[in-house]
């Protein structure tokens, strides 16, 4: 192979690699957005509908919790024509109120695998003894998506 051909092949390879990485990143973002659909309220409704016991499986204590995350979704920005640094204190609070997304914190089951919805889980933690119950995220996400897509029955 000539140096020019070798350079061209390297450029093509780099271009393909960049496209592949961009597609993978977009796929990962879409998967994570699906996980973010599961709010603490919806998770509690899922558990109740599935008949999951409302007490600790180890000690019987009734106070259970689940890790929750709050992030800001800029696509919900009520001030699209302003930079965040230009917002007044009142507008900043309105921005946070409008863009805040609360969801049950997912965790990866196997970090060496692709971060699909099916490779995540949600935790239910006993506030007394610390026992942790794990729930496969895919089951919860599918249930939430079915509710979202059901006509007239929005979460």
Termini separation: 61 Å
Spell out the helices and strands N to C: HHEEHEEEEH
Tell me, what's the shape? extended
Number of separate domains: 2
Catalogue the unreliable spans: none
Instruction: Let me know the number of strands.
Output: 6
Q: Roughly what is the average pLDDT, rounded to an integer?
A: 89
Specify the number of helices.
4
Largest sheet: 4 strands, antiparallel
Helix content: 40-55%
Q: How big a fraction of the residues is strand?
A: 15-25%
Give a structural overview.
The chain has helices at residues 3-35, 40-49, 89-99, 137-149, and strands at 64-65, 68-72, 100-104, 107-108, 120-126, 132-136. It has 155 residues and is of the alpha+beta class. The protein folds into 2 domains: 3-39 and 53-67 and 105-149, no CATH class; 68-104, no CATH class. Strands 1, 4, 5 and 6 form a 4-stranded antiparallel β-sheet that branches. A two-stranded antiparallel ribbon has the order 2-3. Strand 5 (120-126) and strand 6 (132-136) form a beta hairpin. It is extended and about 75 Å long.
């Amino acid at each position: 192979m000539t140096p020019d051909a070798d350079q061209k092949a390297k450029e093509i390879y780099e271009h393909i690699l960049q496209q592949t990485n961009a597609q993978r990143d977009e796929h990962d973002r879409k998967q994570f957005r699906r996980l973010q659909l599961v709010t603490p309220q919806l998770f509690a409704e899922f558990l109740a509908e599935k008949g999951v016991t409302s007490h600790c499986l180890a000690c019987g204590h009734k106070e259970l919790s689940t890790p929750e995350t709050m992030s800001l979704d800029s696509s919900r920005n009520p001030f699209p024509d302003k930079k965040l640094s230009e917002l007044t204190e009142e507008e900043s609070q309105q921005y946070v109120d409008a863009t805040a997304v609360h969801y049950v914190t997912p965790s990866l089951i196997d970090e060496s695998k692709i971060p699909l919805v099916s490779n995540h889980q949600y935790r239910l933690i006993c506030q007394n003894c610390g026992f942790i119950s794990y729930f496969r995220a895919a089951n919860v996400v599918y249930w939430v998506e079915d509710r979202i897509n059901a006509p007239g029955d929005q979460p």
